[in-house]
Amino acid sequence: RLRPHPARSICSSRGSNMSMQVDAADAQKRKLEGDAAQPAGDKADDASVAKRAAGVVAGAPMDNGLMKNEDFSRELLRIYYDRLFPYLQMFRWLSYKNDPKSSSPGVQKDFFLRREFTFVLEGDIFCRYMCFRDAEEMKSQIMQRQPIRMEIGAVYTHPPKNHNTVIKDAYKPVERELVFDIDMDDYDEIRTCCTGAKLCVKCWNFMKAAIKILQRALTQDFGFKHILFVYSGRRGMHCWVCDSAARKLTNDHRAALADYMTVVAGGVGRCRADVKMSGEEFHPFIQETYNICEKYFRDDPNGVLQGQDILRKGPHLSNILNTMTFTEQEAISKFMKEFPNATSRDIWAQFEKLGQEKAKLAVAGSFKMKQESKLFLKDIVLQYTCPRLDINVSKQMNHLLKAPFVVHPKTGRVCVPIDLAKMDSFDPAEVPTIGRLVDEMNRGVDVRQTSLREYTHYFEEQFLKPLEKACAEEMSRGTLDW
Q1: pTM for the whole thing?
Q2: Interatomic CA distance for residues 402 and 130, integer angstroms
Q3: Residue 312 to residue 298: CA distance in whole angstroms
Q4: Is-contact 310 320, C-beta < 8 A?
Q5: Residue 291: which residues within 8 A CB-CB, separation 6 or more?
Q6: 151 forms bridges with which residues in the sheet?
Q7: Residue 175 in contact with residue 157, Cβ under 8 Å?
Q8: 413 strand-pairing partners
């Protein structure tokens, strides 16, 4: 039920926009916003076919022999799917060494076939229960349907395409990666630099803190090793935990783990995390999380105090003061009158002085005073810096999540893996768009050497190969390594 559009050229200059109607969807149908591609014109002649085979967009405006860059269009997406999308790597990842052509014992030849994929086509058409035998069939279906978005689901007891032919209770998910989803929208009540769909390096600091907190907890608290963080292409981040033990977690286990990771709740006016203490000490997870948060809250130039300047902008200072004693409020108010141009960092230093005085009084005080002293300011740091997880994505095994390496239709950016070794320098604005990638190929850059290569190389060397090695060892043992 695609809506008709007036015929015109597929590609145009960077300044032109393509309209695409994408409505809000439910939790499994994440919101799609994008520019719509126009239908192709008449059948191309032999010359156009030759150009397309070379990676040149037929009919695209040319500037000094080079196509003018455009972030997203149907034709650019077709070229990306045809020449750049890493089908084999995606198949190797999601099959976990269960190659249907293998004769090795322990291999589940239909494993990949039982994985659900969902295509979202132009016009907000969801194609559920799709599955493929191998990388070749995946590419064939993607090239045929040209989805503007692709989501990955669970591995089921039967191939998803046969779900209507199987007794309802017999068709169920048997494994799925443990996933986490963080969207910048959930930080709108905190960030002062941008709102809505906008994103800058100051915003991205929240994602850096989230990645470091999740990475530490997943590896040190739970012992997971094969973790992939992926930029969502616009304003968020996804985390895929791919260890065998993680993939076998039940929904109850997933819910418990997601709750463990959830420290803060959003909400207008909230300025303190609801942190419980065991005696006079924090739970080790809370303490380790605070240690990471403190850097991004107080010390980082793009952090909460210096980048967002929260104590000088918005209602945050007032909200924090309202939770303090009259004496503490008076001390801060007096400082603000004496130093009206004080920065958020300066104001926070005054809060820290109050905390030091509180700690001295608590030494000889009651148990409650000691607890309050330990918690003072830490709950504020946690509330303003901790990851804000969409825990519903993590709790259910059958939940869909956008696949890595697909393209966000609103920005044209590829959903690329994030190299943790380079995380501090990662800039979402520098992630390649499909227009940029096609431009590079038109300039003569080898398809294997485009600006996408650093991300596929990281995916191969730092994530996929160690994962495949672990899968092979597990198969050779014939048991799961819990």
Answers
A1: 0.84
A2: 14
A3: 14
A4: no
A5: none
A6: 118, 402
A7: no
A8: 433
- Locate 2 and state its tokens: 């695609």
Residue type, 457: H
Copy the structure tokens of residue 54: 């070379």
Q: What is the spatial distance between Cα 91 and Cα 138, in angstroms, rounded to a whole number? A: 9
3-state secondary structure at position 67: strand
Whole-number Cα distances in Å, 26 to 23, 30, 66, 411:
10, 6, 41, 22
- Assess whether pLDDT exceeds 90 at residue 289: yes
Task: Indicate the angle between helix axes 135-145 and 87-95, nearest 10 degrees.
Answer: 130
Q: What are phi and psi of 106, to 5 degrees?
A: 90, -10
- Residue 66's H or E segment, with its range, is strand 66-67
For 356-359, which contacts have Cβ atoms below 8 Å and span 24 or more sequence positions? none
In percent, how much of the chain has pLDDT > 70? 84
DSSP E strand boundaries for 254-411: 401-402
The conformation of residue 254, written as its DSSP 8-state character, comes to H
The amino acid at residue 218 is L
Whether residue 66 contacts residue 7, with contact meaning beta carbons closer than 8 Å, is answered with: no
Catalytic residues: 116, 181, 183
Phi-psi region of 158 (alpha: psi -120 to 50; beta: other; left: phi over 0): beta
Strand partners, 152: 117, 401
* Closest residue by Cα to residue 320 from 388, 385, 381: 381
CB-CB contact of 136 with 149 (8 Å): no
What pLDDT score does 247 carry?
98
Instruction: Judge contact between 372 and 362, C-beta under 8 A.
Output: yes
pLDDT category of residue 198 using cuts at 50, 70 and 90: confident
How far apart CA 482 and CA 224 sit, in angstroms, is 10
Phi and psi for 206 in degrees, rounded to 5? -60, -40
State which H helix or E strand residue 62 sits in.
Answer: strand 62-63
